[in-house]
């Protein structure tokens, strides 16, 4: 079985809806929180990189500020990373899974890819408002600090409620 097919089957087993593009070795994965997540499958490396792309491109005049936010955000994230593509002006949360020669059974692969999707979706969710705020003119340092505090504040509110 081709690695692209293994990945697609694992994502379906994990409860995800998807569209496969075999020519590009990509899978569009529907996400309740991030809209669409692009999975780029690299068969030779047996790797999958998930990208949760922010819906708004960065205008040239905001590129420096958004780039600062991306660097600050990535420094605060423990698993996923933020990136800005200078060629397309797109911002995305990214998470890669590299299996190389590691063989997993279908249940293990489904669980691993589902966890990776959860991580990239969480990073995109956590920084979505911060990206929008910086695009609207907010200070990147302030926006990054607010995004970093948001999960702690949400947990605190949940514990208090």
Architecture overview:
The chain is an alpha+beta fold and 161 residues long. The chain has a single domain (3-160), classed as 2-Layer Sandwich (Yope Regulator, Chain: A). The protein has 4 helices and 6 strands; from the N terminus they run αββββαββαα. It has helices spanning 3-13, 63-76, 106-135, 140-160, and strands at 18-21, 26-31, 35-42, 47-53, 81-85, 90-98. It has a 6-stranded antiparallel beta sheet with strand order 1-2-3-4-6-5. α1 (3-13) packs across α3 and α2 crosses α4. The mean pLDDT is 94.
Briefly characterize the structure:
By secondary structure, the chain is α+β, with helices and mostly antiparallel strands.
Descriptive tags:
single chain, 161 residues, alpha+beta, Yope Regulator, Chain: A, six-stranded antiparallel β-sheet, 4 helices, 6 strands, 47% helix, globular
């Amino acid at each position: 079985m081709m690695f692209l097919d293994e990945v697609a089957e694992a994502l379906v087993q994990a409860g995800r809806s998807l569209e496969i593009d075999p020519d590009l070795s990509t899978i569009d994965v529907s996400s309740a929180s991030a809209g669409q997540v692009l999975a780029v499958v690299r068969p030779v490396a047996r790797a999958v990189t998930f990208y949760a792309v922010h819906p708004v491109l960065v205008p040239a005049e905001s590129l420096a500020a958004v780039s600062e936010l991306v660097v600050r955000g990535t420094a605060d994230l423990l698993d996923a990373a933020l990136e800005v593509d200078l060629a397309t002006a797109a911002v995305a949360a990214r998470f890669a899974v590299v299996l190389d020669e590691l063989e997993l059974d279908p249940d293990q692969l489904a669980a691993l890819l589902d966890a990776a999707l959860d991580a990239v979706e969480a990073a995109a969710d956590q920084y979505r408002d911060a990206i929008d705020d910086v695009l609207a003119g907010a200070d990147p340092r302030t926006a990054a600090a607010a995004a970093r505090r948001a999960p702690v504040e949400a947990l605190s509110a949940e514990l208090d409620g």
